[in-house]
Design goal:
Elements (H helix, E strand, L loop, with lengths): L1 E6 L5 H11 L4 E4 L1 H6 L1 H9 L3 E4 L12 H19 L1 E3 L1 E2 L12 H12 L3 E2 L4 E2 L8 H7 L11 E4 L6 H7 L2 H7 L7 H5 L5 E3 L2 H54 L7 E5 L4 H21 L8 H38 L2 H37 L19 E5 L3 H7 L3 E4 L2 E6 L2 E4 L1
Length: about 425
């Protein structure tokens, strides 16, 4: 009996099925729910060709290391995938990493007994070809030949999980030879003496399966698109970080050549999540409002046009689009371990955090250097003592930030009003005395 694990795969399952169909040999395919949901047409083709379908869990974990609820979810999700893909349920199961009966230890034996109590028929193998290691077509063919001759055997092969060209070539040798020697190929159902182990799913189960398969398909496409988009945005962020390093050095050199005004403002840091949310909302709304207000700079001539055509796209990408994409990274982190590759998802998440930390460390001094240069250009009359800033009382947390060059523009627009002790300017929700 020939059994195949880990499929279906669009590259190799059709080629293996073609070899079996050409020689009139049935095979038993233990599919993972994730692959079945991604390639439902391949499951239907296998069933139409008369091959047997078994369950190989949804995401191919080692069930012996999972909790009881996780053990139940793996075959349940796979049944949903089979119902949505081909309208069937299967009572046949093979546990990953426990292909032979001799591989069962205490924990895996408990899982096997639990699945048996659920009504599943567990299938093990007598001969493992180890075709996943790609030892060569000749070695795979020899490992698939019954030993000793004349004895029946259950053979393990794979139709997914990597390059299976050697497996396809290996089947061309033992199958016709064994048929010529009088061997008969069978399915698990024929071996255990039942009519079938794969039955049709009910109407409700088919609809649930269809919704499940559709959701997996849509989410897979969405994840691929978002992955490319996040990769592009990540590249832009790193490029921007490099440009900022260069510009920060230029600003620092210019600032050393001119008088500096230590105009400093202090703003109260949020003390609760509600205050943090309101502060971030104001900043985000203000950014979009400012970009829309100055949209005409995209088509203007002169310095304003050059600045607008460079600054507004950067503002849209790094201050509007990137923050909107940020929650998707968290969603992908939750989605990845369940439907994707957990070994890649978690390192990728840690990499995102590392890049954010590096960019933050670079951006803070760069902003201060650029702001200091802008303040120097505004003039030396803008020095604000810390005690003159409203809200700088004792017991509050504050952060210092340089005055932007827009302060000079505020004066030009007449936003400065008289006040006792000097002129007062209100800008960005903060009051400046000068």
């Amino acid at each position: 009996m020939l059994t195949f694990d880990d499929g279906p795969d669009p590259a190799w399952t059709p080629r293996i099925r073609e070899v079996l169909d050409r020689h009139g040999v049935p095979g038993t395919f233990f599919v993972t729910g994730r692959q079945a949901a991604r390639h439902p047409g391949l499951v239907r083709d296998l069933i139409r060709s008369g091959h047997e379908i078994g369950v190989h869990t949804f995401s191919h974990p080692d069930l012996a290391t999972r909790s009881g609820d996780a053990v139940d979810r793996e075959p349940a999700f796979t049944q949903l995938a089979l119902a949505g893909a081909a309208g069937v349920h299967s009572s046949l199961v093979r546990m990953p990493y426990s292909s032979t009966a001799g591989a069962l230890d205490g924990p895996s034996w408990s899982v096997a007994r639990h699945l048996g109590e659920k009504g599943y028929v567990l299938a093990f193998v007598d001969q493992d070809t180890r075709d996943w290691s790609r030892p060569g077509a000749r070695a795979i063919a020899d490992a698939a030949t019954p030993d000793p001759p004349g004895r029946g055997t259950v053979v393990l092969l794979h139709d997914s999980g990597g390059d299976r060209s050697q497996t396809v070539r290996a089947l061309e040798t033992p199958v016709p030879r064994l048929k010529a020697d009088g061997y008969r190929f069978a399915t698990v159902a024929e071996l255990v003496g039942v009519e079938r182990l794969t039955d049709g799913a009910g109407t409700a189960a088919r609809w649930q399966g269809w919704v499940f398969v559709t959701a997996v398909t849509v989410s897979g496409t969405t994840v691929s698109v978002l992955g490319v988009l996040l990769l592009v945005v990540g590249g832009l962020v790193l490029a921007r970080c490099g440009v900022m390093l260069v510009l920060a050095r230029r600003h620092a050199r210019r600032a050393r050549r001119r008088p500096r005004a230590d105009a400093v403002a202090r703003t109260e840091a949020p003390g609760s999540l509600r205050q943090l949310w309101r502060q971030r909302y104001r900043w985000s709304y203000g950014t979009m409002q400012a970009a829309w207000k100055h949209r005409h700079a995209l088509v203007e001539r002169g310095h304003a046009g050059r600045f607008g055509r460079a600054g507004l796209p950067l503002l849209a990408v790094f201050r509007i689009l990137t923050p909107l994409l940020a929650p998707l990274i968290d969603l992908l982190t939750v989605y990845g371990p369940v439907f994707g590759n957990a070994a890649l998802t978690l390192p990728a998440w840690c990499g995102v955090l590392a890049v954010q930390g590096i960019v933050r460390r670079v951006r803070v001094p760069s902003r201060r250097g650029a702001a200091a240069a802008a303040v120097g250009a505004a003039g030396a009359a803008d020095r604000v003592p810390a005690g003159d800033v409203p809200g700088a009382g004792a017991g509050l947390s504050h952060r210092a930030q340089r005055v932007p060059a827009a302060l000079a523009a505020a004066r030009a627009e007449g936003e400065c009003g008289g006040a006792a002790g000097g002129r007062r300017t209100t800008l960005g929700g903060m009051t400046w005395r000068h």
